[in-house]
Each structure stands twice: as C-alpha cells, then as structure tokens.
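Protocol step 4 of 6.
Sequence for 2-amino-4-hydroxy-6-hydroxymethyldihydropteridine pyrophosphokinase (Bacteroides mediterraneensis) entered exactly as in the expression construct, tag removed. Do not edit the line below.
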Amino acid sequence: MAKVYLGLGTNLGDKEANLRTAIYKLQERIGKQVSLSSFYETAPWGFESTHSFLNAAICLETPLAPLEVLHTTQEIEKELGRMKKSVNGVYSDRSIDIDILLYDDLILQTPELTIPHPLMTERDFVMQPLVEIAGNVMHPVLQESLSALWHKA
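Step 5 output, structure tokens:
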C-alpha cells in the first residue's frame, strides 16, 4: 500500500459539502483515510474571483498506481461538477479540484502526471493543510521536510 497525499479545493456552491463529498468518494475509491487536515478558507490564487476557496489535504493508503489515482480523482471531479481543468496556467472558479501532491517518495514526470506536484511549495493554500498532516514528510526532490520548506517561503 502506498501513501498518497491529495490537495482539495473548492470555491463554488456549498464548499464544505463539496469537500466532504469528495473525501467520502476518495475513501470509497482510492483507499483508507490516514489523515485529514482542517479546512482552510483562502483567497483565489492565479486568477481574480469574488469567491474564496475552502482547501484541505488528505492522506490515503492506496493499492492503486499513480495514474489510477489520477484517473479516479478526475472522475470524482466530473461527478462533482468540475467542467474543465486549468490549461496553461489559466485558472477559474471550480466546484472541486483534487491534486496529487505526493505519492510515497515517488518522483514521476509524464505528459499526464508530475509527482511531486510541481507548484505545491509555492502555494500556501496547499502547504498549510499539507504541513498540518505531513510536516515531517520529506519532499522527494528537494530533500527537506515539508514543514521546513513551508517556513522558508
């Protein structure tokens, strides 16, 4: 079983219900919940919106391979009303966003998936909830704890 860390975000509709529904579906299809962060209200990042975000991080134990996790999270996003993913750094409001942040200590770069998430250390809305549940976890590329990386930013 692998430990996969996911970042969750929503800024449309009943945000808490969106996160809780996503968490339920993730546990049902990807694996057992190891830990779940608090929910954090944050400002939009990378685009203008009048809607604040609610963000969280979750760790699951999974038998699934990374690409299976990706495809499962994309299915859940569609089921919860996500119409399109961000393209070329153009972001928009969304009912749910699920990003794979870490998968054990795997380093993976394919056209479809990059692990660890390449922008995670630049985003407080990712790092704050992630550090809450995984502060001592080492970033497999940067070889520093997530907590140390977040406090440097």
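Step 6, annotate. The CA atoms of residues 7 and 57 lie 5 Å apart.
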